[in-house]
Write a structure and sequence with these properties.
There is one protein chain. With about 300 residues, the chain is of the alpha+beta class. The protein has 2 domains: about 20-120; about 125-285, Thrombin, subunit H. Helix content is about 40%, strand content about 25%. The protein has helices at about 20-40, 45-120, 280-285, 290-305; strands at about 125-135, 145, 160, 165-175, 180, 190-195, 200-205, 210-220, 230, 245-250, 260-265, 275-280. The strands form 2 sheets. It has a 6-stranded antiparallel barrel. Strands 6-7-8-11-10-9 form a 6-stranded antiparallel barrel. The radius of gyration is 51 Å and the shape is rod-shaped.
Length: about 300
């Protein structure tokens, strides 16, 4: 076919109509007209309101997954914060409880120390404060170790008391510590005086270590439950008048000539922390040679003064 006979016109589908520049100018003018009309006369407001009303359910549906995710994240974050706050509150409560316990212990120790200091000022003998370190490991005795020894002026046989009464006696002295045998030890003994009847006797520790007893007391002895027994002061060790024990029970046996009298110590040995170590009364008494020397010195001073 000759080339001159070919139809070069595009088919109807590809016919473009007006040119691109014409379309740009037309639609730009239309956009400016619509914007000016909307700004001036608010012509598109009802249309926007209708479209917003129709699209509102669609927006809520599309926002539901986002809100659900945000809610789950906030819940997890709040739960984590709540658990962390609970852990911190529990830790603070534990610290507060520990601090309260320490304060209570310190208050009890302060009260005990004040009582010991008040008792020390009332005593006429030399006294040193000491602290109980630990209880001796011997299962068949009642002994504790205190933090005062020969370097602190503790003498062998020194009586040990607290604010309630007599606790025991020093039986071993080391340079920096001492061993205290409690009154409830099975080998302990102390002369006592019944403050009601003024009757002297001796209290001995029970074998079980739970108290004391008065031995070899007559079955008709004037001893009643509740009688207070104090130190008699006749042994040269304990100062007189310090409380020792109270009569807990009296068992008068008809078939025997003696009564079984059980005592309860007024100074509980368990849980004691601070004690007073007294100087034995016998060590405070002047020796015969020293007394003679003091008397001779006094006579010489008196003569010298008379000559003047």
């Amino acid at each position: 076919m000759p080339l001159g006979t070919l139809d070069r016109t595009p088919p109807p589908f590809f016919r473009q109509g007006p040119s691109a520049l014409t379309k740009l100018v037309f639609f730009s003018a239309l956009a400016l007209f619509l914007m000016a009309s909307d700004a001036r006369f608010e012509m598109t407001r009802p249309l926007r309101a209708a479209i917003a009303t129709v699209l509102h359910p669609v927006e809520r549906t599309l926002l539901a997954p986002v809100e659900l995710w945000n809610g789950l994240w906030q819940y997890g974050r709040g739960l984590q914060d709540a658990l962390q706050g609970e852990a911190e509150a529990r830790a603070a409560l534990a610290r507060q409880a520990e601090r309260t316990t320490r304060v209570d212990v310190l208050e009890r120790e302060n009260e005990q120390l004040r009582s010991l200091l008040g008792l020390r000022s009332r005593l006429l003998v030399r006294a040193e404060t000491a602290e109980v370190l630990y209880e001796a490991s011997d299962l068949y005795s009642r002994k504790v170790v205190i933090d005062r020894g020969a370097a602190g002026g503790v003498a062998l046989g020194a009586p040990v008391i607290n604010e309630a009464g007599v606790l025991g006696q020093v039986t071993r002295v080391y340079p920096l510590s001492s061993e205290l045998t409690l009154l409830t030890d099975k080998d302990a003994a102390i002369p006592v005086l019944n403050t009601r009847t003024q009757q002297r006797s001796a209290a001995h520790g029970l074998a079980g270590g739970g108290g004391l007893e008065l031995r070899y007391m007559a079955g008709n002895a004037d001893v009643q439950v509740g009688d207070l027994l104090s130190t008699s002061g006749v042994d040269g060790v304990y100062p007189p008048g310090v409380p020792v024990a109270r009569v807990a029970s009296v068992e008068r046996r008809a078939e025997g000539g003696f009564a079984r009298i059980v005592l309860a110590p007024v100074a509980a040995p368990d849980g004691v922390r601070h004690v007073l170590v007294l100087e034995p009364v016998g060590l405070q008494m002047p020796r015969p040679a020293e007394a003679a020397a003091d008397e001779a010195g006094a006579k010489a001073a008196k003569k010298k003064g008379g000559r003047r």
